[in-house]
Amino acid sequence: MSLTSASCVLSVPHHRDRLADQLSDLGVERNGVLMVHASMRAMGTVGGGAGAVAGALRDVLGEDGTLIVPAFTPENSDTSPHYRNRVRGLGVHAREAVRASMPPFDPATSPAPSMGRIAEAVRLTPGAVRSAHPQTSFAALGPLAGKLVGHHRPDCHLGEESPLRGLYDVQAQVLLLGTGFDSCTAFHLGEYRVPSPPHRTYRCVVTTRGDRHWWEYEDVALDDSDFATLGAEFERTDDGTAVRTGTVGSATARLFRFTDAVDFAARWLTSQRAAHL
Q1: Which of 143, 119, 108 is closest to 69 using CA atoms?
Q2: What percent of the chain has pLDDT over 90?
Q3: Which residue among 65, 109, 209, 217 is least enclosed by CB atoms within 10 Å?
């Protein structure tokens, strides 16, 4: 095969119907609840772009299925890694200018660019519902969307009073679509279930009755620095059957049960992090 012919083969776009078939073959449950972390870049060329991927996810779930994605907004916080990277090397006045320019969180309009194009396509789909946490909101579509995201306490990022508890209770599935375990939000609920987890202060910009102001609160100190290692060990549990792996589009996809991931993470983090204290 010539280089020209090979490039033509590689550039053939993936289509919505085929993506839905691949998701079904992987084991996504029809009429189930599915939480997705996805990379559009890993998917390769897709006819219809991110909207087609979001559509394929909804197709395989069916009308009675519920799709949920992270819609996090670290851009409105001065205690996030995103902010630290943005102001690195800046002087005091330049940092203050950055803080002054941060828009307050609005669940109806605030974009979530760091979550990727597929998550944004879900968030922007008519009928999507979004939780109200000013930093770690979730967007959902489907009959259980309101129930899952409607009660997200503003001082609880990813714990028992966030949508993650609801996902645990309904035994949702988790799909990592071209992403690694370092982005597995389910593991964070495991952090809350570690005995006496460390806490820290968070701060972000919000609006109260039309007034823009900074809000500060205490919550569990979230740390995903060891999630890749945690995920690799989780993937080996039950003789490697806890995680189903396949290809969707051009992406490597991993599918597993939310409860399995949280329970394993709680045990692993309790033993591994205590060992490094």
Answers
A1: 119
A2: 92
A3: 209
Q: Do the beta carbons of residue 213 and residue 206 sit within 8 Å?
A: yes
d(Cα 87, Cα 218) in Å, to the nearest integer? Answer: 23
- Determine how many CB atoms are found less than 10 A away from the CB of residue 236: 12
Residue 7 has a pLDDT of: 44
**E strands along 32-191, which residues?**
33-38, 66-70, 129-130, 138-141, 173-177
Distance between CA atoms of residues 13 and 34, nearest Å? 25
The residues near 258 (Cβ < 8 Å, ≥ 6 apart) are 35, 167, 168, 171, 172, 173, 174, 186
Query: What separation in angstroms does the CA of 76 have from each of 101, 171, 206, 225?
Result: 9, 32, 8, 22
38, 177 Cβ separation under 8 angstroms: yes
> How much is the CA Rg of the chain, to the nearest whole Å?
19
pLDDT in tens, 147-189: 999 999 999 999 999 999 999 999 999 999 999 999 999 999 9
pLDDT interval class at 122 (50, 70, 90)? very high
Residues 6 or more apart in contact with residue 234 via CB below 8 angstroms = 181, 242, 243, 256, 260, 261, 264, 265, 268
Q: What was the pLDDT predicted at 13?
A: 93
User: What pLDDT sits at residue 238?
Assistant: 87
Residue 240 has pLDDT above 90, yes or no: no
**CB of 54 closer than 8 Å to CB of 125:** yes
Residue 124 CA to chain centroid, in angstroms?
15
State yes or no: pLDDT of 1 exceeds 90: no
Q: Which two tokens stand for residue 171?
A: 């035994």
